[in-house]
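Ligand: D-xylitol-5-phosphate. Inputs:
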Amino acid sequence: MPIVAPSLLSADFLNLQKDCDMLNASEADWFHLDVMDGSFVPNISFGFPVIERVCKATEKICDVHLMILEPGRYAEAFQKAGADILTVHYEACTHLHRNLQQIRALGMKAGVALNPHTPVQLLGDILHDIDLVCIMSVNPGFGGQQFIPHTIDKIRALKHMIHDRGLSTLIEIDGGVTLDNAAAILHAGADVLVAGNTVFKSPDPVQSIAALKRL
Ligand code: DX5
Ligand code: ZN
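Predicted complex:
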């Protein structure tokens, strides 16, 4: 069964308690929390006060996706806010190895996200230091965008790299995941499906999560 990680970016920010309760009662495995700084991506989302409250409101895994420059400056603060997994962008880290070591030293799982133009092959020398690779299947910054089809080839290539090295790194797909394309994404080798609009804009979010789990 895939790991399903609904993205709070598409939740109702005036009723976060309601959406957290819904996710807690659902088969969702993780809460995916998107942090945007208005510099690395052309949008600003939410920060520590929201993350702290949301992580307290659940016993599910808090999967924090940082779309920010200089993530190392804030790693400890995200750990304190309740992050279990902290994902930084390859394109935002000059010293990626150091960033990953810092995240693991703080007791969190370390993730690396790749923009659509960044080849998975660039991770060859760092893969053994990564717990999760988040392949962006849209350009980061906004929910509700169209899935970029070439992502499927990237998933296949990364799966081979992980297998060849005997690793158990998880592959997460983020952006434009729907009930129509999720089966192909999983078939290519993905382990984690992030879903924003597919869950929160659905008439029955709990049912949509259950449907993603059963693909
Ligand atoms: C985009 C975010 C995604 C977003 C996905 O920058 O990283 O997590 O919430 O939303 P959907 O599933 O609607 O494309
Ligand atoms: Zn995300």
